Amino acid sequence: MSEILRRANVPIKVVGGPHVTHYAKETMNLGADAIFKHDGDRNFNEWLNSGCKEGIYEDYIKNIDTLPFIKREFPGFELEDYMLSGEDTQKTLFKQRSLRRLAMMSSKGCPFRCVFCDVQDKEFRFLSPQRVVDEMEHLLSCGANSIHILDDCFNTNRGRVIKICEEIKNRGLKFQWSGRGRAVLDEVTAEALRSAGCIRLHVGIESLDPEVLKWMNKRITIETSEEFCRTCNEYGIEIVAYFVIGAPMETREYRQELPYRIKDLGVKYPFFNILYPSANTKYYHQLMANGTYKTDYWQAFAEKPAPNFEIPFPRSQELQEELEETAEKCIKIFFNGNNV
């Protein structure tokens, strides 16, 4: 971003997004003329119509039902660019042909506070069921036949999820869709989802160690995740599950058993990440407080960005290499056809 700001030969340079919500002043010092923190859906247009003055602007929209659809009809937009067919399906995770897949958001934020998560908005703001399905119909009218709900936590409000499903069925809409949410599901909600065309849920299970889950502040138990997986499998909903390895109390034995336990859960698409100290997370602040990091690396990077920046590993090189090897092994087991 700093390189773009430096090279851009334009009279006004504007930046928004998660980074500048934390580091607005630092980004202004790098050459931005205007910064938009948090939501820019409303005040950016106001800024355009009022003279484009320099400064830091901040907005937080409580009622996101008032926001218009994202404008998708613009020069250069070709739905065929989003279509999977023929050999392309063999290069993707979900091997289904003739999918014209578009994404939308039905909510903003996540009310949970996992120690490693850098989602900044900790208030769950959501569109009404009618507004959600209105936008789904809009995407279908653009030619899509598959929709992914790219929320941070789609199923936080169970009642809203069921009403969305009812609205889809009441309008007679037939299409497949998926969503990102939390590994919590009961049979009533599962039946509603499947009957309304939901084929897949993307969730963060993160760990199958109770002590690690407690440390992560996941506010979920292994039993809850197991019930989620059983219910999804029973109702034919595919599971994309994210796992994090490398927590301080995690053992080598746990990591060796992990792929076997994931297989037992019936997770079709597991993804593996190594615990990482993202900026302004509780985990990063813990590392600063306990002396693991004696420099605020993210603050220094925000003030003076450097190419190919990498924060030092918060663990030994030996352990880091073991974690990388474990993640690679798990990927090969599930996606290269190797047996557990």
UniProtKB/TrEMBL annotation:
Gene3D superfamilies listed in its UniProt record: Aldolase class I, Cobalamin-binding domain
Residue ranges of domain Radical SAM core in the record: 95-314
Signal peptide, first to last residue: none
Keyword Plastid: no
Any matching Pfam family: Radical_SAM
Organismal lineage: Bacteria, Candidatus Wolfeibacteriota
Keyword Transcription: no
Record keywords: Iron, Iron-sulfur, Metal-binding, Methyltransferase, S-adenosyl-L-methionine, Transferase
GO molecular function, one term: 4 iron, 4 sulfur cluster binding
Species, as recorded: Candidatus Wolfebacteria bacterium CG03_land_8_20_14_0_80_40_12
Protein name, as recorded: Radical SAM core domain-containing protein
InterPro entries, A to Z: Aldolase_TIM, BchE-like, Elp3/MiaA/NifB-like_rSAM, Methyltransferase_Class_B, rSAM, rSAM_sf
Cofactor annotation: [4Fe-4S] cluster
